[in-house]
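Curious: explain these tokens?
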Amino acid sequence: MELLHNAVRPYAWGSRTVIAELLGRPVPAPHPEAELWMGAHPGDPSAVIGPDGQRRSLLELVEGDPGHQLGAALARQWGNRLPFLLKILAADEALSMQAHPSAEQAKQGFALEEAAGIPRDAPNRNYPDPTAKPELVCALTTFHALAGFAVPERTVRLLRSIQTPGLAPHVDLLAGQPDSAGLRALFTTWITLPQPALDELLPDLLDGCVAHVRERGEFTRE
């Protein structure tokens, strides 16, 4: 019988108990464990352990004989690679924001970075492989996910309802251009705000949110 040994990714938002308990290891783990990867991803492929205890990379097994490992039809369809990665996520804190490319964007971006000679593990590398990253989530426990942006006009009403003076220029930015370009400009402004500006804005913003909820305003749920 062969066994599969899977990589654990130690991202800071991970849990110190969930994956350790799942794998039957001591709890708590010495550091956060965020994702258990099962697949042949080049960044951290699973290892196949044979009856003799020998370990072989699942990636190497697939690349060495894709027709046998995947079946001839799937090997042809997916370019001799395992076309999915199964992850078990254990999130104790909010995850980082995700932005995944389309198939065409991934292919072009990978080719450009390969031609530029950027190492695939470089911190400034955006496309370590040429594939798209569509995701399907199956929640095993309570899990809240946010996807996309609300309609700009509604976002303007929400921000104005909080009545935070420091938000005024940001609200005006989106109100003056209530479309995808305005959302991009506002979002870019927010994620590049220097820390002193955030420190000044956030307390009033949080107070405004609390007041809105206490008054059962239109955007209480948000």
